[in-house]
Specification:
Organism: Nocardioides hwasunensis
Radius of gyration: 25 Å
Protein name: Hydantoinase B/oxoprolinase family protein
Number of strands: 23
Helix content: 25-40%
Structural class: alpha+beta
Pfam families: Hydantoinase_B
Number of helices: 15
Strand content: 15-25%
């Protein structure tokens, strides 16, 4: 086995940005191989190492989930763990994670000691790994024979880190200073000794100091435990064997995506765009996120930028709108877009040969050499200038998942899913029945898009492994009753393959309170593709059917709710795939029986003439009448109609236009 260690630094991360916004140098080692190219490795050991990494990552997350205190971490599971090598490359691929780059930038590896725990949440000093201040990140170095050999990291969305409103996500913020306490990389534990002063500063700035302290303790302890586990792996097999296995794991990912995924995209250049609809400050408008995708099969090697010869995807964000006044900006243009590459790459897995194969494909640092990103100048939604606000940056980075899916769909004749659900935060806060302050906030999912071979999934969550808060838990802890939690009928976009359904949740308040919401897709909808229709948008109504009935804006910080009033939340449905007139009538009948589609929508959207009734148990369809009904309607035409359907809300923001120029093939 070779004993040569190649510590070549990827020059892209040295020359791309001489200093960060804080004036700190960014010429730190990153992205190089740990061992020489072609080093021999035992394939069985590679499997053992890969399985151990996944096991340690899951053990860290399990420990955090079982010992944390806040509902967002413990119950909603809005946190992630990740394992990185000493070249800062992400080794695990079950989920996305933050970056180690800002830690190594500010604290040289040579000066780290066992028991150190580093902390940061500063968006602009995170090198793109942290999107908003409630995401707190802890990083622990792994040691072997006195030297740093890897890192264990966890970051999660916490209840409150200060700022203008409970939850630290003010919808009308115009600077980061309104969003809470920003902490640049610091040493939170020094050789096993916690920095009590730093902890006290953070908890003093939080409205939920006890849960914040408990969550941080859980994350630090879990990552320290994970570091010990990885240290044992190095002790058992030796550094050389483990680091050769690390390189082999990432090389395998690179080769798999090159062979199985990039090969499915024809060479050429494709353009598409989608939009956030509001930023909390200006009136609703189209905040454009544009991708120009170029696929090249025989790109030459670019050693100066660390890119090998062969297939390459070039993602150019030129045409993205200017930085918003409100908090929907995302700092994406750091270290060559390293975070965004790994964030967006899971979309490419939809090109796998089968859904089963798709589920097997991890996204780790191995995809980074296959993607080149080009960013516009500073001052756009993806290249904001400090102190631009960012707390609702999900409106941009989640939309980018859909933009990439859409532009790839144009390249592969629609063989990509229609648009998926978008994340939203909803919640209530006030005084509980004992007069104590409380904050209940959750991330409700929605429907995923229909696929060329199957309907979309209902009520999925974009954040991997996250979930809605259990009714039994919330009713026992907060002053309200959950009267309904189910599927929002007709919310999925019509199509040959229907979009998945969103949630419908009814909350009855027992005390006066305030409702909060950070959500988009309340005007625009999840788009349908290749004749499929858009899903239903997000909607919140207070006191539906009552004297004070009113629809709440999707960006709300303190909407008053009276005791006894109901809050009805409906989340987005996924877009449909394919012409609804091509859907099997039997599938429509089944959906009506299941309550996913109404009888009215069966006729209106699918042209299916029903017979019988669900009450009598004899619901069916009239075959001749259905053929006649569908025959009187125009079928979708690739040549004459738009490839994407954005729903009726688009025209209200686009001066009456039914679709954008880029929506045609």
């Amino acid at each position: 086995m070779s004993s040569t260690f190649d510590t070549t630094v990827d020059p892209a991360y040295v020359t791309a940005r001489p200093v960060n916004p804080a004036g700190l140098p960014t010429a730190y080692s990153h992205g190089g191989r740990l061992t020489a190219e072609g080093s021999s490795v035992d394939p069985i050991l590679v499997e053992i190492v890969q399985g151990t990494l996944a096991s340690v990552e899951m053990e860290v997350e399990t420990a955090i989930g079982r010992t944390s205190r806040s509902p967002m971490i413990r119950d909603a599971h809005d946190f992630r763990a990740g394992i990185h090598d000493r070249e800062l490359r992400k080794l695990t691929g079950r989920s996305y994670s933050a970056l180690v780059h800002p830690i190594v930038r500010d604290f040289p590896i040579e000066e780290m000691r066992e028991g150190d725990v580093f902390f940061h949440n500063d968006v602009y000093e995170s090198e793109g790994g942290i999107g908003h201040l409630p995401d707190l990140c802890v990083t622990v170095p792994v040691f072997h024979e006195g030297e740093v050999v890897a890192f264990v990291q966890a970051f999660g969305h916490h209840d409150d880190i200060g700022g203008a409103v409970p939850g630290s996500m003010p919808s009308n913020a115009t600077t980061v200073y309104e969003e809470g306490l920003a902490v640049p990389p610091i040493k939170l534990w020094d050789a096993g000794v916690p920095n009590r002063s730093a902890l006290r500063i953070m908890t003093r700035n939080s409205r939920m100091p006890d849960s914040l302290a408990a969550d941080l303790d859980a994350e630090c302890s879990a990552c320290l435990m994970g570091a010990r586990r990885l240290g044992e792996l190095f002790e058992r097999y030796g550094r050389e064997a483990i680091e050769t296995s690390f390189d082999a794991i990432l090389d395998a990912t690179t080769e798999t995506y090159r062979r199985e995924i990039l090969s499915k995209i024809p060479d050429g250049t494709y353009v598409w765009e989608d939009y956030a609809e509001h930023d909390g400050v200006d009136e609703p408008q189209l905040h454009t996120q544009r991708i120009t995708l170029t696929k090249v099969s025989d790109a030459p090697a670019d050693p100066e930028m660390g890119r090998p010869a062969g297939p390459r995807l070039i993602i150019d964000f030129t045409g993205t709108s200017a930085q918003a006044k409100g908090p929907i900006n995302h700092c994406g243009d750091y270290v060559g877009g390293n975070f965004l590459k790994k964030w967006l790459a899971p979309i490419l897995r939809n090109l796998a040969d089968t859904p089963e194969r798709m589920a097997e494909l991890d996204v780790n640092e191995g995809i980074v050499p296959l993607i080149e990103m080009r960013f516009p100048e500073k001052g756009t939604l993806l290249t904001p200038i400090h102190p631009g606000p960012t707390n609702a940056r999900t409106f941009v980075i989640l939309r980018l998942l859909g933009v990439l899916a859409g532009v790839v769909a144009k390249a592969v004749d629609g063989k990509m899913p229609a648009d998926q659900e978008t994340i939203r935060y909803t919640g209530v806060y006030g005084k509980d029945l004992e007069g104590n302050d409380y904050l209940m906030r959750e991330v409700l999912g929605g429907g995923s898009g229909g696929r060329y071979y199957a309907d979309g999934e209902d009520t999925i969550h974009v954040v991997p492994d996250s979930r809605n808060l259990p009714t039994e838990f919330t009713e026992s802890r907060f002053p309200f009753i959950v009267e309904r939690l189910g599927l929002a009928q007709d919310s999925g976009g019509a199509g040959e393959f229907r979009g998945g359904l969103g949630y419908e949740k009814h909350i009855r308040m027992l005390k006066d309170a305030h409702f909060m919401s950070i959500a988009d897709r309340s005007i625009l909808a999840c788009w349908g593709v290749r004749g499929g229709k858009a899903g239903m948008p997000f909607q919140v109504v207070i006191d539906p059917g009552g004297p004070d009935e009113r629809e709440v804006d999707a960006l709300a910080d303190a909407e008053e709710i009276k005791a006894g009033q109901l809050v009805r939340i409906r989340t987005t449905g996924g877009g449909g795939w394919g012409d609804p007139l091509a859907r099997e009538p039997e599938s429509v009948v089944r959906d009506v029986v299941w309550g996913k589609v109404s009888a009215e929508a069966a006729l209106r959207d699918y042209g299916v003439v029903l017979t019988g009734s669900t009450d009598a148990g004899d619901l069916g369809f009239d075959a001749d009448a259905t053929v006649a009904e569908r025959g009187g309607r125009a079928a979708w035409s690739r040549d004459d109609d738009a490839f994407f359907d954005r729903g009726p809300g688009y025209s209200s923001l686009a001066d009456g236009a039914a679709f954008a120029d880029v929506d045609r093939i």
